[in-house]
Amino acid sequence: MACITHENAVPRPSEAGALDFNPFEAMQPRASPAVPKALRNGARVKTQNVAPAGAYIPDINILTPHMRSPQYVQMSRAAAITLGVMPGQMHRCECTRCLNLLLTYPEGCRANCAYCGLARHREAERDYADRNFIRVDWPALPMEQVTEIVAGAGSQTPFHRMCISMITHPHSDADAVAVLKTWTRRIDPHALPVSILSNPTTMARADVQRLKALGADIFTVALDACTPELFERTRGRGVQSPHAWGKYWEILHDARDIFGPGKFGMHLIIGMGETEFEALSVVQQLVDLGGHSHMFCFFPEQGSLMDHLPATPRDQWRRVQLARYLIDYRGVRLQHMRFDDRGRVTDFGLPRAELDGIIDAGIAFRTSGCPGKLRDDVSACDRPYGDSPPSNIASYPFQPQGRDIVRIRRDLAMRRRVR
Ligand code: SF4
C-alpha cells in the first residue's frame, strides 16, 4: 500500500540564486513622468466632447467618449463577459460571481499610486477609460442598463454580489451614493448584496453611515501597502499622491463601528516590499478588530510606476495566502506561527496533518474577498487573472484541485512524496 510522507515546510529560493521574496530595497517605484498641461484632467476627452452611445469597449489610444459617473460605470472585463455585453472566455471559469463596478470620469483618478494602472501620471499616455487596471480593460456602460440586465435576470443572475469601487475624485462620494440608489431601486440588496470599495481620502464618517443606511452590506478599505513606509512610498508623498496611512485606518475604524463584525475588510497587496511578518501582522490586527483581509499578489501592471519590478515570487505568495487563511478562518494566531530573520513564515502553527488537509482543500489559495452564496471563506469576488496570468496563477478564481494542488505544494516546498 502506498504510504504518503511530506518534506519539511522550509522556505526555499524560487529559482537558483533568486530571492524567494520581494525585499523593500528592491521594490522602488520609478519616477512619475511629467504630463503636459494640455493633457491634464482629461482635457482631450472633454475638448472633443464625443457623446457616449451604449457600451464602450476600451481600446488603445482611441478617443474615449465624454462619459462620467453616476450615469456611466466601468466594469471588469470578467463582469462584462458575464453580463453578456462583451464577448470572451475566461480560462477554466464560466463566469465571475461579483459584478465589480468602477466609478469613471474623463479626468480619472486624481491619485498616483505607484502600482496602479489608473494612476494620474498616465494622463499623457492614455485616456482614463482606456487604462488597464489589475491586468485587464474595463468596459463602460450606462448604470441604468447594468441594473436593467441584472434585474431582468432575477434569481437566475450568475452574480452573488455587486461591488462599487470608488476612485479619488471630488465627486466620488456623492456618485457612489447615486450608483447605489440606482441599483437598490430595482434590486433587493438582501437578495444580491452590495460591497463598497471605498476611497478614504475623500470620505468622512457620515459618508460611511450613509452608505450603510442605503443598504450596503460590506465596506472595504484598500490599504494595499502593508506598512506606513511602503504606503508613503507607493501611495503618498513618494509619488505625489494624496493618501495618508492614518486616514485609511480612521475610515476602517468607522466602518467597524457602523457595519459591524464580519462586515468590513481591508485590501492588501503582497510582495511590494513588506515582510511576510508585517503583512500577517495587519491580517491579525484586522481579525482582532472583527474584520477580514482581502489579498492581492503584486503584479507589475503595464504602464504603472512599478512595471519594471518583479511579480511576487510564488513561494512568498503561497506562504502568505496560507497563513492569512489560517488567521482569518481557522483561529490560528500570528503568535502561534514562527518567522525567520527576514520575516518569512517557517512554521504555520498547526500540526502537519491538519495543515495538509487545509492545503489539499485548496480554498486558502482561491481569490480572497467579500463572500458569495457558497460559504464564508469562498469569495464572490473571484477577479479572474487580476493578479497573474493564467499560465502561473496566483489567486485561483476557481476551486483548485489535482494538478493545481501539486503546483501549490511545490510553491510551498511542501510536496507529498509517495513511496
Ligand atoms: S486611488 Fe485607487 S484607483 Fe486611484 S491610483 Fe490609487 S489605487 Fe489606483
Question: Can you describe this structure?
Answer:
It is a single chain. With 419 residues, the chain is an alpha/beta fold. Helices cover 29% and strands 13% of the residues. It contains eleven helices and twelve strands. The protein has helices at residues 43-48, 77-83, 143-153, 172-186, 205-213, 228-235, 245-259, 276-289, 314-329, 352-361, 403-412, and strands spanning 4-6, 72-75, 98-103, 140-142, 161-165, 194-198, 218-224, 264-270, 292-297, 338-339, 345-347, 416-418. It has an eight-stranded mixed β-sheet. A two-stranded antiparallel sheet has the order 1-12. A two-stranded antiparallel ribbon has the order 10-11. Strand 5 (161-165), helix 4 (172-186) and strand 6 form a beta-alpha-beta unit. Helix 3 runs parallel beside helix 4 (172-186), helix 5 packs parallel to helix 7 and helix 8 (276-289) runs parallel beside helix 9. It is globular and about 60 Å long. The model is unreliable at 1-16 (pLDDT under 50). Iron/sulfur cluster is lined by residues 109, 111, 113, 116, 118-119, 167-168.
